[in-house]
Design brief:
Layout (H helix, E strand, L loop, with lengths): L13 H17 L4 H12 L6 E5 L5 H9 L4 E6 L2 H8 L7 E5 L11 E7 L8 H11 E12 L5 H23 L3 H12 L3 H10 L3 E7 L8 E7 L2
Parallel strand pairs: 1-2, 1-4, 2-3, 4-5
Antiparallel strand pairs: 5-7, 6-7
Length: about 240
């Protein structure tokens, strides 16, 4: 079991933590009211056109990929993740032509042609150098292309921090331990979210990376003020 810092796991240990939790991951997130619906909300806010070329950065078991395809049928989706076991879970599902799963961390990603849109769900919080990676994602977008970060952020709200810690302590961590025998991944989730940017800070990161028309929106239900979409456009 890897030790946790106050910010969660070191970046190098995050993929192996997701490997350990991959088999139970879909079952656990399925118990989260609104999880898939919220991904679809962020995908709609991103607004990729049907048939467009989309990067799903940090696709996990494919929930974000499915959300993108729900919004943009026929999209050509390149879905990447650093966890081999999460990708194995994703590949085991049925996908239309045009969906490609690539085993790579975002830090190592290259592309032969630019993307029309980029979706990054629960990714930026797990990176060592978010500013450098957002600048890299900026470079992978065509001019006029848009990015959507779908992310937890509770720093700006005392209520959101209280709800997040209560839900993690009473539900997420105990269920994660019960399902997998190891709560490391779920304790990382709790700590990394508490330590992560507030909404204003995350918007500022996108602006520093070169994005314009940067704006944010939250989710309905218990995740209001906790889960957010942060949007930006490459001019």
């Amino acid at each position: 079991m890897s030790p946790l810092t106050r910010n969660g796991l070191p970046r190098a240990e995050v993929p192996s933590a997701f490997d350990s939790g991959a088999a139970a991951y879909d079952r656990l997130v399925g118990a989260n009211p609104g999880y898939h619906h919220h991904l679809r909300i962020s995908a709609r806010r991103l607004g990729p056109a049907p048939g467009s070329r989309v990067l799903d950065a940090g696709c996990g078991t494919g929930a974000s990929t499915a959300a993108l395809l729900r919004v943009a049928p026929g999209a050509r989706v390149t879905a990447i993740d650093a966890s081999a076991e999460m990708l194995a879970q994703a590949r085991a599902k049925r996908w239309p032509a045009g969906v490609e799963f690539v085993p790579t961390p975002v830090e190592d990603l290259t592309a032969d042609e630019p993307f029309d849109a980029i979706f990054a769900a629960y990714l930026v919080r797990n990176l060592d150098d978010p500013d450098a990676q957002l600048a890299k994602l900026y470079g992978l977008l065509r001019p006029g292309g848009r990015i959507a970060l779908h992310e937890y952020s509770v720093r700006d709200s005392r209520r959101a921090r209280w709800v997040w810690n209560a839900v993690c302590g009473a539900v997420v961590i105990p269920l994660g331990r019960l399902a997998t025998g190891d709560a490391t991944l779920y304790r990382h989730l709790r700590r990394s979210v508490v330590a992560f940017d507030g909404g204003g800070d995350l918007c500022a990161r996108l602006t520093r990376a070169g994005f314009t028309d940067v704006r944010t929106g939250t989710m309905p239900g218990w995740s209001r003020g906790i889960v957010h979409t942060v949007l930006g456009t490459r001019p």
